[in-house]
Description:
The protein is α/β, with parallel strands linked by helices. It has a five-stranded mixed β-sheet, sandwiched between helices. Strand 1, helix 2 and strand 2 form a beta-alpha-beta unit. Helix 5 packs antiparallel against helix 12. The longest helix has 45 residues. The two termini are 46 Å apart. The model has no long low-confidence stretch (mean pLDDT 88).
Amino acid sequence: MSTGPSATGSTAGAVRHVLTHLVTPLLMCIGMGLAYLGAFHAPEPHDLRVDVVGSGPQAQVLAQTLQDKGDGALSVRTVPDRATAVNHLRTQASYGAYLPGKHPELLVASASSDTSATVVEKVFTKVAAAQGDPLKVTDTAPTADGDPTGQGIFFLLVAVSIGSYASVAVIGGAGAVLALRIRASLAVGASLVVSAVGAAFAGPLFGLVDHGLGGVWAMAWLYSAGILLVGVGLHTFLRRWTTLGVMVLFVMLNFTSSGGIFRPELQPGFFGSLHAFWNGAGFVEAVRSHVYFDGHALGGHVLVLALWFVVGLAVMGAAGLAEGKRRSAAGHAQGAVGARHRVGAEDRPAAESPSEAVLRSQAGAKEELEEELEETVAV
């Protein structure tokens, strides 16, 4: 049996095909490493706001000493009384409040960030120990019983995000032959299902929240719909690179800037700056505000989610214009080919029949879809 040039060429072509598609997972590996390790590998506080309760010289000296020794790690202020300190914690204006005296006490709000509360507790445990007194820690905003670390909201974000961006590949790829309005409807429908699953996780299955589940579902839907609309719209332009593009937007930059594990005060400045307007941060902070902080600043966080939804609508609109131009150009090209075929058809070999062209197009689309779905990975 011959293993001549044709077989060798076929093998070489297959190897080139595989190597070309290996670019995507390698880029994912590099991107995930840079994002996750860059954001999480060495959390250090910077300008972490804490209060010292008291208005006398002792409180002023302690606050200034902590500020100076912290070398930028802490932003220490004095407040006149315990009520003011509690209000700051309940509005996330600070992440710890120290009451000095014979029986020192530290106030924290673990629902705001368990890791930030832990950092603050370490600082003031040393302060109290230097004075020879044990430190009492009071949590003014504890998390639900089903979320003792306060990080369940982050993992809810992960579940909803993966359900959303994986759906993008299916709708964008398998639904590529559908009209854009149908794909948009499928995106909205998928977001309703994904958000309902997220609400089931948050409430009856794991008890991540003990009240306000309806609001959590609504914010999960708005968040998921934004991802799906952006992703399905981008598929028109990126095609098989859509999975990588959506992962960059909604995994690499999104999870790391959400504040679900470390708040921006414990992260490098780049990820801290994204926290102000990225959709994952909007979701995490909106849920925290809704469930634990009586809706304080909830409107701003929901606005972030709404703006991402609007961005999704804009991307879908741009995709509609681009696809319209492509159809118009294809129609003109088909008309020109048909005209050339009619002129002098007797002098040229038979052209590919319409049925053969359709089959070839469908085969190519199927292969592209399979490759795209294979590249859709969960994190």
